[in-house]
Amino acid sequence: MADPFVVGVGNTAFGRLEGLDAIELMANAAGMALADAKLERDAVDGLICGYATTLPHLMLSDLFAERIGMRPSYAHGVQAGGGTGAAKLMLAGELIRSGRCRSVLVVGGENRLSGQTRDQSIQALAQVGDHVTEAPNGASIPAYYALLASRYLYETGLSEADLAELAVLMRRHAAAHPDAQLREPITVEDVLASKPIATPLKLLDCCPISDGACAFVVSAEPGTTGIRIAGAGQAHQHQHITAMADVMATGANAAARLAFSQAGVSHADIDHLAIYDSFTVTLAILLEEIGFAERGQSGAMARDGVFSQNGKLPLNMHGGLLSFGHSGVAGGMAHVVEAVRQLRQQGGARQAGRPQRAFVHADGGVLSAHVSLVLERVA
User: Among 82, 301, 309, 317, which residue is least crowded by beta carbons within 10 Å?
Assistant: First the structure.
């Protein structure tokens, strides 16, 4: 049974990329990942695509393969909301472990900013709400997360200023990445003074909508810079917010435990973090539920430098969804791309030490679909 390795990564810039559709964006990122892996398209026997709201094709993997001239022996489409990127990487790893494939191209992206109106984007994302009790009342993704935030802040003592610290940190990290959508520095005061979106969330507590794409290549051969997928886990405890039993136990910890167990490591063995951050409260909840921060302390830890470039646990050195940008499936994939580059010592000005193991976590829906991964440097 072969170990799976991430041997190639690629990403386009994120932001407004006029004139490029979802397939073109994905093709650009795929070309970068294949070049990074030093593989030709015909050497790849597996293909996994995420969904694209701007191109809701029923057979997107087949369409993509046709457009770029691939003939894979295995092709699959994956839909798990924001957890899709991590879920695809987990699936690619399983295909390698089982011997079904020798190399798998994983790709996702869309022109969500330039290819949709604001109302179309809101309508597409609102599908995660219950079609009887939630969506008809006009709830949106920010509204669902605002409800979570209100309860979580009440339960833990976190403040809106604590959440703002996470937004400031992500912007600071994005400033060092040339492909990030938002790079202008912000302060806690800027976040607190920004436009109210859904109390207690304000504009700068929310990720932007972006165009962009990411890709990676997973192989049975480590190559010269392969990063091993050491552990993976998932948890699915609810879909709708009204079915969430406990805001303090969303499923993130359950997924993380599985990933840690498979990798044979613990929190103490992790020295780099790549955690999903669609909203500041998303990042706070995940950091605390998984156990990288005590309950109610994620904001204080960000303020104290724990998650900074020179801190004990560098976090989302590309700027995360909050500042690098959020282009659907590719938004979460960018966390993996950055984690791989950090493990390879390819972060340039944003390189955070010499990490050995990175922990990746993504969620889809309203903290509904959780996927955790442990990536490790083997050479």
Answer: 309
Distance CA 379, CA 372 (A): 23
Is the residue at 262 inside a domain?
no
Token pair belonging to 40: 């030709």
Strand ranges (E), 156-282: 196-198, 201-202, 211-219, 227-236, 272-275
At 72 the pLDDT is 96
Residue among 142, 332, 363, 91 at smallest CA distance from 237: 363
Alpha carbon separation from 40 to 31, 66, 148, 163 (Å, rounded): 9, 16, 45, 44
pTM exceeding 0.85: yes
Residue 345 lies in a domain: no
Q: Which residues in the chain show pLDDT less than 70?
A: none
Distance CA(328)–CA(32), nearest Å, equals 19
pLDDT at position 121? 80
Q: Identify any residues that bridge with 109 across adjacent strands, giving them in sequence order.
A: 213
Q: Which domain holds residue 79?
A: 5-116+210-219
* Listed residue (152, 131, 270) closest to 205, CA to CA: 152
Nearest to 333 by CA among 48, 73, 65, 125: 48
- Tell me the CA distances in angstroms from 118 to 122, 182, 199, 351, one per residue in order: 6, 18, 20, 35
State the CATH number of the domain containing residue 52.
3.40.47.10
The Cα angle at residue 363 between residues 107 and 232, in degrees rounded to 5: 75
Q: Residue 9: inside a domain, yes or no? A: yes
Share of the chain above pLDDT 90, in %: 90
349 assigned to some structural domain: no
State the pLDDT at residue 2: 86
Q: How many domains does the chain have?
A: 1
Q: Which two tokens stand for residue 364?
A: 């889809």
